[in-house]
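Box S1 | Example of a co-folding query
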Amino acid sequence: MTFPVTRLRRLRYNGIIRDMVSETQLSRNDLIMPLFAIYGKNVKNPIKSMPGNYQLSIDLLVEECKKVVDAGVKSVLLFGIPEKKDESGLIACSTDSIVQRAITAIKKEIKDINIIADVCNCEYTTHGHCGTIIDNDVHNDLTVETLAKQSLTFAQVGADIIAPSDMMDGRVGAIRSILDENKFEKIPIMSYSAKYASGFYGPFREAAESAPKFGNRNTYQMNPSNSDEAMREIELDIAEGADIVMVKPALSYLDVIYRAKHEFNIPVAAYNVSGEFSMVKATAQKDWIDGARVMMEILTSIKRAGSDIIITYHAVEAANLLNK
Ligand code: PBG
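Box S1 (continued) | Returned holo structure for PBG
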């Protein structure tokens, strides 16, 4: 049937009908809020390139988590800034390390919260790379060992989900094994499966103090040109035991999210990363766009592309709008 019998505008004239035929629903259940833990008491360091985000000492982080949960966001993703760094990130492999302490404190105070622990070494190494350096490059298998250790300590302090973001080969399998050997077989792994070597991580590296001191991450993170390779990464992670797979960043990779959802029957997460967040904030501050409207449009597009879960620094703001 064509015009004039078919008029697609008929379903757009009335807001209730528009909602009725809306194909994508954003929900607070889908959102994960990233937070940054730092040593000290009563510390709230603004992250300049990410307006509204802070490095928080554990006392304030617990308070922030209460606010996040009150807004209806039930999941947080934790990163840490350690007191000291070392060559291999061993500083992060103890139940007394910064994020492990934060998890212990949050779990003590808040019941219904889902804590996701980001597993990586870049915040904890002197050189800022995601693993142990041998011959000027991150050594895959040695790094996998530290990642597995770090993961186990997260499970021991009560993390609900383990999320490796390093892009080493074989790390999902190694983490699954160490968790299972230690009776943590119930803890899911959300793998950063298709993580690209992206310019959009700039503000995060200020937040986590994790910029590489030499070179770049091109030998472990993916080339932005590739999507077939992303499917191979996802397939391998699923084979190694990933329960949720992630595509990161989100906006320049909506096609990868779409393929991931359609080619694999598994929950897909997308990381709406720091640079994507900061672009919205910076342009909104100049009054060049309506920040809240663009935020909701972006989050809806990530969901529409096929993502079940969205990690975003907009989580609380978006939840507050959804609550209205
Ligand atoms: C750690 C890690 C990074 C991000 C999440 N985990 C940074 C990186 O790879 O340099 C980026 C998140 C963001 O930009 O919001 N490997």
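Residues 26-323 form a domain with the TIM Barrel fold (CATH 3.20.20.70). The chain has one domain: 26-323.
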